[in-house]
């Protein structure tokens, strides 16, 4: 009887080892240890055996069953590993192949516009300066000559955080002007910087966002006057909008941190709801500017009798919307790939004053 069981075990294990797929292995398992399999047929012989032989025979059959099940488990592991290797080989991607055109990424219009701004002012000798999004009240308001009762300092317009142990409340910067303050406090003139970055205000509609991007510029030196400001901004507007004879005008205005202050308008035409930038019968406000207020210069530890300067600021989303015909500010942050494919730029479309900003 033992010799017969050894033969059965060897035969069943051989059929398991011969399985070349998981389906074939399952068939071998059913044939060996299934309800109607070979091992089950052996167990049915117990009833016909003498009582003294049943125990040994039953133990021997169980040993055969355990050996076959162990062989099945080992073979299954081998086949699964081979199937995974085959799948990985079949799905292998050659990373050296060029990217398919339909899968090509796009540069966001905000990133593209910032690059254009940096390129234009870089040609004029400006460098980029940066600062933290979280500021203290002094750098965001007080140093800029903004009085305590000014509406911009109210919680309806500004995001404040919890006060620290000394009672000071950090603020999410409402403009990038604190970068100007930091620069004037830490560097000696001459200073010529632009400060692009995120800013935050409590507002949200088709033309306003609680988080938006702004760029500000600052020039500080011993002999800076309004003519330098006008020449710089006229050149910027004409280069950015790529209209060499773009009309630019300066309107008297008021900002706490500049004196005198001026709004900058560019010429445009409005016809049947369509806006066209260039020579026309209408004007469009584009940015604010002015000569740095003497109190701001003094607050930063510089002598206003010796140093003068000019500053300006503009919303990056706004000028991007004007140049590229984007009607709604909120779509900048919807993370819609269809929108990005339409308004985005190919990665190689790097702005350059010589080759054109919008190729």
What does this structure look like?
- With 359 residues, this protein is α+β, with helices and mostly antiparallel strands.
- It has two domains: 2-90; 109-342, BirA Bifunctional Protein, domain 2 (2-Layer Sandwich).
- 39% of the residues lie in helices and 20% in strands.
- It contains eleven helices and ten strands.
- It has helices at residues 2-17, 22-33, 38-43, 51-90, 109-123, 137-140, 177-186, 226-240, 294-299, 316-324, 337-343, and strands at 127-128, 134-135, 171-172, 191-200, 211-221, 248-255, 258-271, 274-277, 282-292, 308-315.
- Strands 1, 4, 5, 6, 7, 8, 9 and 10 form an eight-stranded mixed β-sheet that branches. It has a two-stranded antiparallel ribbon with strand order 2-3.
- The longest helix is centred in the N-terminal third of the chain and has 40 residues, at 51-90.
- The relative contact order is 0.11.
A few lines on this structure:
This protein has 359 residues and is α+β, with helices and mostly antiparallel strands. The chain has eleven helices and ten strands.
Number of domains: 2
Major sheet summary line? 8 strands, mixed
Radius of gyration, in angstroms, nearest whole number: 38 Å
Q: Tell me what the CATH architecture of the largest domain is.
A: 2-Layer Sandwich
The succession of helices and strands, N to C, reads HHHHHEEHEHEEHEEEEHEHH
Count of β-strands: 10
CATH class of the largest domain: Alpha Beta
The CATH topology name of the largest domain reads BirA Bifunctional Protein, domain 2
The average pLDDT is 87
Distance between the termini: 89 Å
What's the CATH H-level superfamily name of the largest domain? Bira Bifunctional Protein, Domain 2
| Total helical elements | 11
Structural class: alpha+beta
- What proportion of the residues is helical, as a percent range? 25-40%
Which band does the percent of strand residues land in? Answer: 15-25%
Instruction: Catalogue the unreliable spans.
Output: none
Shape: elongated
């Amino acid at each position: 009887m033992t010799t017969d069981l050894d033969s059965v075990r060897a035969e069943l294990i051989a059929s398991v080892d011969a399985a070349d797929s998981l389906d074939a292995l399952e068939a071998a398992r059913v044939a060996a240890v299934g309800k109607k399999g070979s091992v089950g047929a052996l167990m049915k012989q117990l009833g016909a055996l003498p009582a003294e032989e049943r125990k040994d025979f039953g133990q021997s059959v169980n040993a055969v069953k355990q050996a076959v099940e162990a062989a099945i488990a080992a073979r299954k592991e081998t086949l699964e590993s081979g199937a995974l290797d085959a799948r990985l080989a079949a799905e292998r991607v050659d990373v050296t192949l060029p990217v398919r055109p339909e899968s090509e990424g796009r540069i966001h219009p905000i990133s593209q516009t910032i690059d254009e701004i940096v390129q234009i002012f870089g040609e004029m000798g400006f460098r980029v300066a940066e600062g933290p999004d979280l500021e203290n009240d002094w750098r965001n308001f007080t140093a800029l000559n903004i009085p305590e009762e000014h509406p911009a300092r109210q919680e309806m317009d500004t995001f404040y955080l919890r006060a620290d142990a000394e009672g000071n409340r950090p603020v999410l910067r409402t403009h990038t002007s604190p970068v100007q303050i930091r620069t004037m406090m830490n560097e000696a003139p001459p200073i010529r910087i632009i400060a692009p970055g995120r800013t935050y205000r409590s507002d949200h509609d088709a033309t306003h966002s609680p988080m938006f991007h702004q760029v500000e510029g600052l020039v500080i030196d011993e002999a800076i006057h309004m003519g330098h400001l006008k020449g710089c901004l006229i050149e910027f507007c004409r280069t950015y909008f790529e209209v060499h004879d773009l009309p630019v005008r300066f309107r008297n205005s008021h900002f706490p941190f500049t004196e005198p202050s001026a709004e900058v308008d560019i010429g445009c035409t409005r016809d049947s709801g369509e806006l066209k930038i260039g020579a026309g019968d209408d004007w469009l406000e584009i940015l604010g500017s002015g000569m740095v207020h003497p109190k701001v210069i003094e607050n930063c530890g510089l002598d206003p009798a010796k140093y003068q300067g000019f500053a300006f600021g503009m919303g990056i989303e706004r000028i991007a919307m004007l140049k590229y015909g984007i009607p709604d500010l909120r779509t900048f942050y919807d993370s819609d790939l269809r929108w990005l494919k339409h308004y985005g730029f190919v990665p190689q479309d790097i702005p350059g004053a010589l080759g054109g900003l919008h190729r």
